[in-house]
Amino acid sequence: MEDKYDAIVIGSGIGGLTTAALLSKAYGQKVLVLEQHWTLGGLTHEFNRKTKDATYSWDVGVHYIGFIKEGELMSDIYDYISNGNLEWQKMKDPFDTFWYPDFRFGVSSDLEQYKKDLCALFPEEKKAILRYFKHVKAAAKWSAQWFLKETLPRPLSWIMALLKKSKRAFFMQTTQNYLDKNFKDSKLKALLTSQWGDYGTIPNESVFWGHCVIVNHYSIGGFYPKGGSKTIAQHIIPTIEASGGKCLSSCTVNEILIEDGQAIGCTYKVQQQGKWVEKTVHATNIISSIGAKNTFRKLLRDPIHPKLDQLESGHTAVTIYLGLKGNPEEKLGVTGGNFWLFDNYEHNDFLKNEDVAENPAQFCFLSFPSLKNPSSKFHTAEIVVFLNSNPLSSGKVQLGKIEAKPTKNTNKKSLNVTLISQKNASPVLKI
After folding, report:
1. Which of 73, 276, 321, 331 has a C-alpha 20 to 30 A away from that of 154?
2. ∠ CA(166), CA(171), CA(172), 5° rounding?
3. Cβ distance 237 to 40 under 8 Å?
4. What is the CA radius of gyration of the chain?
5. What pTM was estimated for this model as a whole?
6. For 304-323, what is each residue's pLDDT tens digit?
7. Per residue in 164-181, pLDDT tens?
8. C-alpha span between 75 and 323 (Å, rounded)
9. What structural domains and CATH numbers belong to the chain?
């Protein structure tokens, strides 16, 4: 006999789990979450690799979170859906370091100190810098109100849209356009957009309000879940189960069922006793948390929204997961903050050399998850390199061993990572 559910959520990423938990706790709904991966949590999940001497754990997407503070909406939501069980560790300053060929800049979790540091480095641009942070705050507020209108009934949503329309052109300009109009120093322009990897779009393609939302999000610093990113899903899932719901992994949804123009359920495949079995489940509400393209192209018998074909693919990234045989805090002097490493100031040109098999990457993101999580027994690092998807499809980039060797100069500790492709070996960084 088929189980009855009030809602079905497809995808167990943070969006899907949050939606399911809110429906469960606030409305008492019985929710079924279906996840095709063998691990729940989407980009909040972790994976492990064992060697003879250690078991290493890496997060796949949670490098840091902002706005974890009592009274802040982000923090309140996490507390609500986890029943207060999800705890956070604040990252030490500087929580972000931007590393350029001729200087380094550390970002303070004290916003006023961050402003002072920028003004000290670029005194001629002081007025523009202070004006920029006012615009950041205004853009974040405008963005929240703009999305709020989508939750309001008509005609209230129309009225809200009209009230916000006057600022729309300003906040919807490209980030690069704003920078060019307000700043003169090219290094400062680059420095202010050093975090573009957080939202995945270069300055001449990104919308200014989107950039501002990220800057504002980290205006009180970076935070990391105690116990690692896997604890996010671990503490949310019980909230869903408390109302009779279930969170199932290794379930591939085949189709959203439509009847008289209404979504009524879905079919999915699951392995039982070594065989794939197709099941059907119905619910009043069907919520897809796997993205517009996957939803409309793969899960509907008659795909809709042809405008999706006009959307270009975004930038992709390759992540290198490293298990460390030493403590990076002792060996390299790092304290758990993130490093954004650039070999020039032209963020918009980072894809000019698309063939990563022949040309070195122009920038990368370096993180040490084990230093952010006090419960880690073994140390790890992650290197994220952004690139175009073309090199991956060409077949020139091969999987294999990654060797990394450190170098020390006479003045300071530094890490020079050399990557070598060899087959059938585990990634280990010796420091």
Report:
1. 73
2. 100
3. yes
4. 23
5. 0.86
6. 777 777 777 777 788 999 99
7. 666 778 999 999 999 999
8. 31
9. 5-62+228-309 (3.50.50.60), 110-219 (no CATH), 313-429 (no CATH)
